[in-house]
Amino acid sequence: MATVLIAGGAGFLGRSMASQLLARGDRVVCVDNFITSHRSELTTLESNPMFTLLEQDICTPIEPNSSIDAVVNLASPASPIDYLKFPIETLRVGSLGVLNLLELARSQDAKFLLSSTSEIYGDPLEHPQVESYWGNVNPIGPRSVYDESKRFAEAATMAHRRTFGLDTRIARIFNTYGPGMRPNDGRVVSTFIRQALLGEELTMFGDGSQTRSFCYVDDLVRGLVSLLDADALLVAEPINLGNPDEFTVAELAALVLDLIDSSSTVVHLDLPENDPTRRRPDISRAKELLGWSPTVSLVDGLARTIEHMAATVL
Ligand SMILES: NC(=O)c1ccc[n+]([C@@H]2O[C@H](COP(=O)([O-])OP(=O)(O)OC[C@H]3O[C@@H](n4cnc5c(N)ncnc54)[C@H](O)[C@@H]3O)[C@@H](O)[C@H]2O)c1
Fold this sequence. Notes:
The protein is α/β, with parallel strands linked by helices. Helices cover 39% and strands 17% of the residues. The chain folds into two domains: 3-177 and 215-243 and 281-294, Rossmann fold; 188-210 and 245-279 and 300-313, UDP-galactose 4-epimerase, domain 1.
């Protein structure tokens, strides 16, 4: 049994990770300031005596009242509408917040797992994206508050590993979806499902030929837990976690409409600035080092997500 501190533990991935860890007998300390989540979403988790909540911003020093074996950092505004609404908070959490958590891990002699993102590859010039690719990020564009804060977070993590020998792990997470997403979080999967369920027009950026690779939440979190458990020496470098099945956004819209049996039409909007044209993870490293690969197909995962979201929005 380990005690795992999850920063951002009230969010979409955090709640799912907390559930998986509690289910195997770990204790979970959730640290969250609810900037993009709500305490009511923790009701089930808070009924578990092995789960405790510290309501605070991770940019201020964290003083847990028990010893910690692992620090998992999932705290950050994560969807484009969130980080564009909170640009300064996003930069602060990726810099001051990450440095605080690294200090905490160091003082507790704990492992540190950083959730980074495929966004560090920017609009990639290499396809699929392998961990050795350095990326193509516009450092001053509107999305840079997120992309650069994650790139800083990776640099800070590696510096702590090199300087202090801290046991660190970095997951580069690609688009993840599933039950528990907020219907209004602005991500493409939740937006299309919500609009189709409500019989509204589906708002598609550009002509829908841009591609994304969508990973079901249970698969992704299983990957995060495997990374947390892995032999420290094997996982010194960042690891891509995502589903390598690649779909155009237009294909995603068609699947959602078909599964919901919706007659909603599609309306095309201008592409956001610096929107990546292609996204697909190379997951060879995760397969080799963690024995991990996703198992849930997009059709199955969408069906489960639609069922869950229908109960919320209808
Ligand atoms: N979901 C995805 O598709 C995806 C893809 C790539 C990377 N990630 C990364 O995974 C992590 C979790 O993503 P998510 O989808 O669960 O996002 P989310 O918005 O649902 O959850 C993030 C949580 O962090 C909390 N938080 C933000 N700033 C904080 C601060 N300063 N102090 C304390 N808590 C703070 C929020 O209140 C929220 O509960 C993020 O770091 C994100 O960048 C997610």
